[in-house]
Amino acid sequence: MSGYRLILGNKSYSSWSLRAWLGLRQAGIDFEERVIPMYTEEWERDIKSESPTGKVPVLQHDGRFIWDTLAILEYAAERHPEAGLWPTDEEARALARSVSAEMHSGFMALRSNMPMILLKTFPGKGIGEGVAEDIARICQIWRDCRARFGGSGDLLFGSFTIADAMFAPVVSRFETYGVDLDDTCRAYAEAVRGLSAMRQWREEALAEPWVIDRYDPA
Fold first, then answer.
1. Taking the CA of residue 194 as centre, how many other CA atoms within 13 Å lie in the half-sphere pointing to its CB?
2. pTM of the entire predicted model
3. Which of 29, 35, 121, 168 lies at a CB distance of 3.0 to 4.6 Å from 24, suitable for a disulfide?
């Protein structure tokens, strides 16, 4: 074992957990994982001892606690440069960092109105104020990255990077809520869904016994 331990929330709902988990899995980094179901007695009992912020995800390694998804992925990229979690080209890397940070701090309308839910589909729902604008901006990012740096593969910068991990839950949201996509964005979304780690996450999410009613837009 590598000594990495990743604490996660429910795989059906925790978009930030998905980002960290997917990045580590796609990079081929070995880690132990623990899912603590949110809004349960187990969560209330254990989360503070596992995470200094009381939130997920958090990576534990060599006595260190690394919290916040982007910090976890940056930590992994520094320790495992061979994994290629950032593009090698300087211009591409700058763009990848920029769009990852924009996803990290933005798109609040989309997050609020279209929470990640892997258990059900809600086509046509979730279109609240500002959501259409968020969707348009995300699609613009995808088209730009693909046009400029995606020629070597099917993902934003060709091969898998942290940027793809950051947008993976958006791919899930677009599927759940039936968002119409142009050909470029649809092909990108299909490539993300086709990742072996993404398929594994989905299978494990669908096998979970927990349902959080507050996330159900119906």
1. 9
2. 0.97
3. 29
Please give the full DSSP string across 91-158, using - where no structure is assigned: HHHHHHHHHHHHHHH--HHHHHHS---SS---TT----TTHHHHHHHHHHHHHHHHHHH-TTSSBTBB
- Dump pLDDT digits (tens) for 168-199: 999 999 999 999 999 999 999 999 999 999 99
CA distance 191 to 198: 10
Cβ-in-10-Å burial (0-12, 13-18, 19+) of 11 comes to buried
d(CA 215, CA 114): 9
8 Å CB contact between 73 and 19: yes
218 vs 215: CA distance, rounded Å? 9
- Alpha-carbon torsion (127, 180, 118, 61), positive or negative: negative
Closest CA relative to residue 165, chosen from 68, 77, 73, 60: 73
